[in-house]
From TrEMBL:
It comes from Sinosuthora webbiana. It is found in: Membrane. Keywords: Membrane, Transmembrane, Transmembrane helix. Pfam families: ODR4-like. Its main location: membrane. This is Protein odr-4 homolog.
Amino acid sequence: MGRTYLVEESIGQYLTELSTKVKPYVTGLLIGQCSPQRDYVVRAVRTPPKEQQQQEESVGPPKLASLDEEWITTHASQVSRMLPGGLLVLGVFMIAAPELAKDGQNALRKLIFSVEKSLSKRRLWKPTEEEVSDRAALQICSATKKVVCRTYDVQDPKSAAKPADWKYQSALTASWVALGCTVNVNIHIPLLATSPNHDLEKNTKNGLNRWSKQIEDCVFLINGQVRDEDTELLEGQKKFRGNTQPSTQFSDVKVLTQLGQAASARSTATVQVCSGSINLRGAVKCRAYIHGNKPKVKEAIQALKRDIINTLSDRCEILFEDLILNEGPQKKNFEREYHVLPQRLFVPVAGSSVMLSDYKFGDEAAGEIQERFVEMLDQPVQAEDLHIAEDISTVDICPVTDSPSDTQQAQLTKATLLLKLQQNMGLVVAAAVAVLASIFSFNYFSD
C-alpha cells in the first residue's frame, strides 16, 4: 500500500492550465507537509523558464535529456527559503506530451534525488529516524490528462518507484494550526586566527551550527504551558460541528533557552587565538504550520524549531550572496563592518490559510518582491499584502587590528596551562576557569 497525497483542489486547476499553455513539457515543485499517516500538497509551482530553453524549444522538438537539472535544483533552493516551518518541497511534477511520457519517470526520479541532495546540504538540522523520507514524482500527460503518482525513498539511492494515491480535497488547510514565536538572537562567533582568508561565510555557518544545537535543546511553552510531546496538540480544544466553517487556530509559543548544563555534565573552557569575531543580533519572527489531523505536540515543536534555525541561516546566506554580488568573491580588506540582515515578511496565499514568507533588504522596493513571488512561486501578490514582521537585525564583523602583544601571549600560555591542570577538578573549578576565560576574552577583544 503506497502513500496517500491529499491535494488542495485549486492545484488540479493550476496543473490543467499549465498543460494547455506550455508545450511540450514543463516541470515544477510540489510543496506541502509530510505526516505519518498521509502527505498534504498545498502548492504546485512551475520551474521558471530560461531564455535559452525557450529558444531551443522554438528551434526543434525538445528531449527530456535537455532538462537543466542545475536550474531546477537552484529553483528548489530558492523556494525552500520562502516556506515557513512545517512546509517543504515534497517532490517534483512533470507535464509532458505523450511522445515524451516514456522517459518521464526516469527524469523525475533523477530530479527528486538531485533536489533532495541540494536542499540537504543547506540544512543545519538532521531528519529524525521516524521521519517520512518518501518524495513524490507526479507525471501528467498533456493530451489525456492522465495522472500517475509514484514515490521514491530519498534516503535510499537504489529506491524503486512505489505507487501512491493522488486525491484532491477542498479547503485542505482550513483546520491547520499556526504557531508563532519571537526569538531574540545574540550570537558571538569567533574567527580563528588559523582560518584562511577570514572565511566569513564558513565561520558563520559553523557558529550557526553550534547555535542550532542550543535551539534543539530549548524548552517550548505553547500558550504558556509545557506540553507532553506525545499528546495531541489540539487536545481539550473545542471541535467544529455542523455547518460552521473551521478557521486556522494560532498558538503563541515562548522559547526558553537552557542556561546551564546538567550537574553530571563536565564543563571545560577553551582558549583560542582569534583574528576577530562575528556578532549576530536582533529579534526574528518565526512561524510554523501543522495539519489538523490529530497532530502531536512534538510535530508542531519540531516544525517551529526548524523554522527558527532556517530563517537565520537563510538570511545569512542571502546577505553573503548580496555581498559577493556587490563587492566580489575575493574581498581582501578585513575591516570592521556593520551589515543589516534582510527582514522577514509574510504573504497570504489565495484560497489557503497558510502564509508564505520572503526576505527584504531595506532598499528593496515592493515591486521587486512582487516580481520575485511571480518568478519563484508563480504567485501574484498585492503590495498591501506584504507584511514585514520584524525590526532590523544586524551582523557586526569585528577584526582585531593588532597582533597579540608579548604580555598577552604570556597570559594566553598561562591560561592554557591552568586549564590543562584544572580541567578534572570538578564543577567549581570549571566555573572558575570559565570566568577566567571570559575575562581573558574581554581583554583580548577590547579596543
